[in-house]
Amino acid sequence: MMFPKDRTLYANLNTSFTSFDALVDDCRGRRLTGYIEVAFPGWTGTLILSEGEILNGVVEAGPDHVTGPSAIRAIAERAAQKDGTISVSTAFPDVVLLVHRLTESRPLYKDLTSAFTSLDRLIAKLRSDAITGYVEVQVTGDAGVGVIYLQDGEPIESVFAAPRVPMMSGQDALNAIVAAVNAAGGTFNVFIEANAPSAIGLPRQAPQAESYRQDLLAFWADVLQRVEQYVDGVSKPGRFALAFREVLVNRAATYPFLDPFAAEFSYTNGAIEFHGPLPDDFSKALGDCLGDTISRLAFQLKRADLETRIRAALEGVSERHAAVVDRFGLREEFQEFVA
Questions:
Q1: Domain residue ranges in the chain
Q2: pLDDT at residue 256, as a whole number
Q3: What confidence score (pLDDT) does residue 122 get?
Q4: Per-residue confidence (pLDDT) for residue 207, from 0 to 100
Q5: Hey, CA dihedral for 97, 103, 104, 109, is it positive or negative?
Q6: What is the pLDDT of residue 38?
Q7: Cβ atoms < 10 Å from Cβ of 166
Q8: Low-confidence ranges of the chain (pLDDT < 50)
Q9: What local confidence, expressed as pLDDT, does residue 206 receive?
Q10: What SS3 state is found at 52?
Q11: How does DSSP assign 306-326, residue by residue?
């Protein structure tokens, strides 16, 4: 995590010559609201304080992330070792409390890219869903990293670090993150409070589709996988997935449950996952998006015969899934795909 800071009180004190206990007592006496950071190569521990009281600890060492009492103990023990550094900084009270809430978080979206949507659009989506969490931003080409903290969907603090540029915070950092991503591209990871509801947005009831959920998902997974195998075979691996995802984004206003940023639908490696009840228009939505994808690919690949070739690749699908095809009328409605 990148911690939003206001002022630095002590910077890079050497652990060899600093009494950590005395420093913590000094921060308590100052009623510090902010952070005490202990750093060694490949290891960083941060104490989060409010009015001089330790709220939490965060230890990060490579992929490992530890919080709570065990992290607090580990920080105190590591601070007694030689040749590390200790820094103390202040932060705004509301920001510190938000960071404390988010030390225990879970991913909502992983490895999103600016190739599919702008950072502005992602923030607008999180605002509409009233998300409390944070967005990690990695600018393409190691041109910078940033974090945007949100409370009830509103960005309340940001941090941005880039080569040869002092670390920035506040609105300047947010502007710099957006500008850097717009210029060079980037990837985004979104995290939300660990105890946040698992389903974002209003629930949809679809009794008919839901009662045959696995059969319906298996049918569409078979269709998508066959189309993917053919398209990637005549172009290059990943070509279908890229075009399909672009169409899902473009169709998000009509079919929001297929929006890659809605965290409900995903298609990966021949398998479909859908979180939440299946909408009644689930099959229509996938059929429309698949049709758009095939049309887009036929143009991009300059293959006028692509639709005909895909029909051949889908031969036998309707027989294999006859029960679900007949129950939902898919044979007639999507005959161009499953005939």
A1: 8-102, 105-193, 207-338
A2: 85
A3: 87
A4: 42
A5: positive
A6: 98
A7: 6
A8: 201-207, 338-339
A9: 41
A10: coil
A11: HHHHHHHHTTTHHHHTHHHHH
Q: What is the dihedral of CA 169, 174, 179, 182, to 10 degrees?
A: 130
Compute how many other C-beta atoms are within 10 angstroms of the C-beta atom of residue 289: 21
Query: Model confidence over 83-132: pLDDT tens digits?
Result: 999 999 999 999 999 999 999 898 888 888 887 777 888 898 888 888 99
| Residues 152, 156: Cα–Cα separation, whole Å | 10
Q: Which run of H or of E encompasses 228?
A: helix 213-234
At position 308, the amino acid (one-letter code) is T
Are 312 and 319 in contact by the 8 Å Cβ rule? The answer is: no
User: Residue 337's pLDDT is what?
Assistant: 53
Which residue type occupies 224?
L
Helix 213-234 and helix 282-300, axial crossing angle in degrees, nearest 10: 0
Residue 138 tokens read as 């990695």
| Token duo for residue 215 | 């059969």
Intra-chain end-to-end CA distance of the chain, in Å = 52
Interacting residues of 328 by C-beta distance below 8 A, sequence separation 6+: 209, 212, 216, 283
